[in-house]
Write a structure and sequence with these properties.
single chain; 194 residues; alpha/beta; Rossmann fold; 7-stranded mixed sheet; 3-stranded mixed sheet; globular; binds glutamine
Length: 194
């Protein structure tokens, strides 16, 4: 069965996600309009700037369609700003900030502050053998997880950086800039099992 994964391409590092999918032999298209959204079996929401992504999703008439699809079980994978876009509650957002939802979590934006703007770490990640190489860039942290949410990965200090709830997978970090392909593989398996 051929499968095409969409990468939301309004803003942020969507090209790196497309390159990562290419590296694991999975076809992808950039999604900027509804007709493209209708062609894909799952959607990656990249890192970037969540406040801008929200505005552009509204301007491109994609906000409600994506939100509805997610709530109807469509597979989605959000990284960094993409995780913020999937959180039911956004802490330290700007006034009026909202995402698509899909993950019953509270996510705090820019949680590491200026001292530790960007860093890399090797993490255990449920469903992946060996350590995952993760780049954190002005990253959010998951502050609260609801009852139906699986925690997939934590930092050494216990802070949560990877979660899944049914069809929605969200991580605080960027595997796609660190040459890490296994979380994308995990998402593709999730789509195939959906
Ligand atoms: N700080 C950004 C935001 O709030 C996320 C940063 C990122 O995606 N690397 O959207």
């Amino acid at each position: 069965m051929s499968l095409t994964v969409g990468v939301l391409a309004l803003q942020g590092d969507f090209r790196e996600h497309a390159a990562t999918l290419h590296a694991i032999g999975v076809e992808s298209i950039e999604v900027r309009r509804i007709s493209e959204l209708e062609k894909v079996s799952g959607l990656i929401i990249p890192g970037g700037e969540s406040t801008v992504m929200q505005k552009l999703a509204v301007a491109y008439d994609l906000f409600e369609p994506i939100k509805n699809k997610i709530h109807n079980g469509f597979p989605v994978f959000g990284t960094c700003a993409g995780l913020i876009m999937l959180a039911e509650e956004i802490l330290d957002g700007i006034p009026g900030q909202a995402g698509f939802g899909g993950l019953d979590v509270s996510v705090r934006r820019n949680a590491f502050g200026h001292q530790l703007d960007s860093f890399e770490a090797d993490l255990e990640f449920a469903g992946v053998d060996g350590l995952v190489h993760a780049a954190f860039i002005r990253a959010p942290i998951v502050d609260r997880v609801g009852a139906g949410v699986e925690v997939l990965s934590k930092l050494d200090d216990g802070r949560i950086v990877g979660v899944r709830q049914n069809n929605a997978l969200g991580i605080s970090f960027h595997p796609e800039v660190a040459g890490e392909t296994r979380i994308h593989e995990l998402f593709v398996r999730q789509i195939k099992n959906a």
